[in-house]
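Entry:
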Amino acid sequence: METKDYLTNYYERYDEEGRLISKHGMVEYITTMKYIEKYLKPNMRVMEIGAATGRYSHALAQKGYRVDAVELVEHNIEIFKQNTIPGEHVTITQGNAMDLSDFESDTYDITLLLGPMYHLFTTEDKLKALSEAIRVTKKGGIVFAAYCMGDASVLSYGFVHGEIYNIIEKCMLNTETFDTFSNPWDIFELHRKEDIEKLRSEFSVTQLHFIATDGYTNHMRETIDQMEDRVYELYLKYHLAICERQDMVGYSHHTLDIFRKE
């Protein structure tokens, strides 16, 4: 089975739309959009690589930006098209993050790589995806690359949910360093901050932010989903105040590496 087949099977069963509209899921979405909007200016062109069902692409297109999206999984593309409303300047192309040869270099002001790094399992493939995202971005343009973090999964899935020995038996965890290891059938590749920094160091870019996009949210998702609105708004304010604290980013299930192409 190829990586695409594993992803297709996964996303045909998974409610990607629902993930980002629950109260706990909205934390990641609100945080990501806050930082995207920090760099948006009128008439900018945006590319989203690995757009899934188009949550970000459609939001930006509805704000008046021209968005070109690329997605690997046909099921997600069908939903993306269903979610398109009249007047949106958005395109969707089936493609692979590691080969964007249909798109010209130095074209986009903002490039979003918000999903592919979750599902690439070799350094070579990760560097290809980053290289292509950087290539299609204009000099001075901004790239947003999202990652799944290992320690958050070890804590929540491993220890809280009682799966730690199952993870060890699958040879997914080094019990000396607690580094994580994944294969395509595991669906998600997990990182630490130093892994991400090593990947970025291969390119002529300047880091702008490294963000815990959901912070401690997924460790307390039931509590957050049950919060009354007033408390939830205060939680969001707290999260946004601390999401760049580097002493806390490892607890986040998702992080966002934001850098400028030089």
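The first strand starts at residue 45 and ends at 49.
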